[in-house]
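Protocol step 4 of 5: obtain the predicted structure for the target chain.
Materials: sequence only (see below). No template structures provided, no constraints applied. The aim of this step is simply to have a reference model before the mutagenesis design in step 5. Sequence pasted as it appears in the construct record:
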Amino acid sequence: LGALASIKTNVHDKKYFNMSAEKRVKLSSTTTLECGLEMPLVGLGTWKAPKGAVKAAVIAAIKAGYRMIDTANDYGNEKEVGEAIAECIAQGVVKREDLFIQSKLWNSNHRKEHALIDLKATLEDLQLTYVDSFVIHWPQATPATGKTAGICRPPHFNVPYKYSEQAGTMFPTDDDGYYCTDKECRIPETWHVMEDLIDMGLCKSAGISNFNIQQVRECLAAVKKHRPQVLQNECHPYYQQKDIVDFCKINKIQFQSYSPLGSGDGPFRKPTDPTLFEEPILKTIAEKHGKTIGHVVLRWHIERGLSCVPKSTTPSRIAANIDLFNFSLDHGDIQAMDALNRGWKHCLWTESSDHPDYPFKEWLPADYVRELAPANTSGKGCQ
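Step 4 output (structure tokens):
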């Protein structure tokens, strides 16, 4: 599998397609990170998973064979994730060492004095002593004040509050209703905090999310001891991220796709937005392989050498989303899916763009005017 792993990173490589279909299918369902940790390529995403449904979804996922769970404290459901993990371990379904649990550092906690509070709250909710991967959720310290840590606890949980009224909120706003911004806290400082958390044994590796290429470079330049192992960004056939995917491969960072199926239930969607599940070419490819469009799209991520974290709370769909290793796409399939790339991205969270490290400034219109913080964060900006 070692030889196969070096080939699978480029699905346009002739060597890959000269392999027999059987050998292509046997590509490992895990990858080895640069630091030596083994990480599953497919995990269960929990963004937008509603309270009350998350515990059952995680239990169903673990029983279906998932060994990676992707979560974050601002999703507001880590306690249920922790209950599910604890129950599966207690019942002997899985051992802790066989799981790869990934969580994220929230924007309001980028400073050294707040990051440890953030991770300890996550570990308490997950009922764990460490996570396998701890990721900087967004590069910008917004919403943040730099004065107080914000964790998912009552009375504020993960809902915006005026900082003058609730100092511990994860989404602090000023008295006018705009997100507070800690403009003095920048990427290098936060990365050094992540390195400290690894040395403390609270996480086995660290990564980044929603970073653009220049910000990944900045993070790499700041490394003292531990390199970023994972970059989790939005990626799907409409937004293929070819440049940053190649950049990550060159720099030995595992690219991980969130919204790998295009986030059909995303909070940002407009009626005119494209939908992968209605694409004729994907229907044709799926019929050819006797699979669903979801299978085809998720297999496309795998054959590009990417990890992905599809979200679902439906047990049958959860099981289907990991059933990806009994078929492979051919060169014609890959070329046809290449043609779907159209630079369509759904997750911008423009309300947080006041910070100099906001990663998607090129997506803002020339006449963009800063927006008030949304009243509901269940979908806005949480990924």
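Step 4 remarks: Residues 1-11 have pLDDT under 50 and may be disordered. The first strand starts at residue 30 and ends at 32.
Proceed to step 5.
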